[in-house]
Amino acid sequence: MPPLAPPGRPLPPSRPSSPRLLPPPNPPPPPFPGRDTKLEDTPAVFAPLDAASPRLTLDFAPDAFRFLLFDSLQGLLLFESSDEIQKDKGAMPRFLVLDPPTRRRTVLPPPRRDTVPDDRRWRGSRYYIGSALLSRAHPSKLCFQAVCFAIEEGRPRAWVASVTNGDCSWRALPRDEEAEVDFNPWLFENRGVHAGGKIYWHICNSPRMLALDPVTLRFSYLHGPRALAVDPITVCKVRVGETPDGRLCLVTDGEQQLQLWVRGEGRGSDKGWLLQKSVAELSTLCDMIPGMPSDAEMIPGPRKPTDIEMVPGMPCERTVCVWPSDMDVGRTGKVFIKTWGFGRYSYDMYTGKLERLATKRGKEYGHPMFAYFLAWPPAFLAPDPEPFGDL
C-alpha cells in the first residue's frame, strides 16, 4: 500500500519497478460452518427415488405447513401441530393425518382430559413425548389407529385414537408400571422408529430405547450392547432399524467406527447383540465428504486438549462432525449420515457408496426423513374393513 501524503500535498510519483514473481499467499482456512446449515422441521415434501416412483404431493392440505411430520405407515402420514405446547404441564397437540394417494385428510383433536380417570391427579406430573401410527384397516377408507404417550410420575401412559372416515374416539390406557422412567423425560426423542414389529423411541445419551408393542400396547426397554458406553457418563450415537433380511439391528458410531450390530445370541454376544461388521472408519467417511477439513485444519497451531475452548462452537476432531442419524426403513442397507454443516448423505453399508442427499435444485434434504410406502394390498384387492374394536 503506498504511503499517505500529508494533507494538502500531492503524493510523490511512484517509481517503476521490475516485475517479481511472488509465492501465492497461503489462503486462510475457510470458516467452519455452523452445526446445522438447514433448519429442522421444515415443511414436508416428497422426494421420488426414481422415475418410476409415483409423483405425490401435499398440495391438497395447504395447512400442512402448520404441522410437523412424525410418522409414515401404510400410505398414511401423521403430523403434530407445530404450536408450542407446555409438554411438562400436561398439554397435548392436535394431529393431522393425510392419505396422499386419495388426497384425504383428517384432523384429530388432543385427547380429552376426562379420558383419564382422576386426570387432575396425574396432570401435574405429565410430560408429553410423541406419537406414532399403529395400524390401518383398509386402503380405500380413512380407517386407522394412532397412539401418543406421556410420562406420568415416572411411568408411560398411552392414548389410542381409533378413526373411521374422520370420526375419532380416544381412550386412555393405564400407566405401564413395568417400564420405569428413572430419568428426565426431556431426554426422549419425540419421533418413534418402526422396526422388528415394534415402535422404538431413542433416548439421548443412553444405551436403552423405549419400545411399544402395537398389539399389546405394553411398553418395555430394549437394551443396547455394553460396548455402546464410551465412559461412565457418555454413550455413543445409536440408531435402531432392520437389515435387508428383516433382522433387528443397531447402527452405532462406537470406537470411531460405523458399526452394525444384529440381534442374536452366540459367541461374542453382548446383551443379545452380535457385532456383524465394522462398516467404516469415521475418518474414512470424513475423507469422502466434500469440503470436510483435515484434522490439521480443524484448529490451527499446536494441539492441546483444551483447544476446543479456543474456537467457540468448533469441534476439535473432525470425526465429531459426522454421525448416523437414522437407518433407511426401506431395508436398503443404507444409513443416513448427518454432518456438522457439510450436508446430509446416505451410506450403503454393503457397497461403501456415499451419496449426497439433495434435490435436483441442490437443496439439502431436511430432518427427519421417512420411507413412504403405498398401502398394500390396493383397495380393489382388499376385503371390506371390519370396525375397530377394543384391544
Automatic annotation (TrEMBL):
Residues 1-33 have a biased composition (Pro residues). InterPro entries: AT5G49610-like_b-prop. Residues 101-280 form the F-box protein AT5G49610-like beta-propeller domain. Residues 1-40 are annotated as: Disordered. This is F-box protein AT5G49610-like beta-propeller domain-containing protein. It comes from Triticum turgidum subsp. durum. The lineage of its organism: Eukaryota, Viridiplantae, Streptophyta, Embryophyta, Tracheophyta.
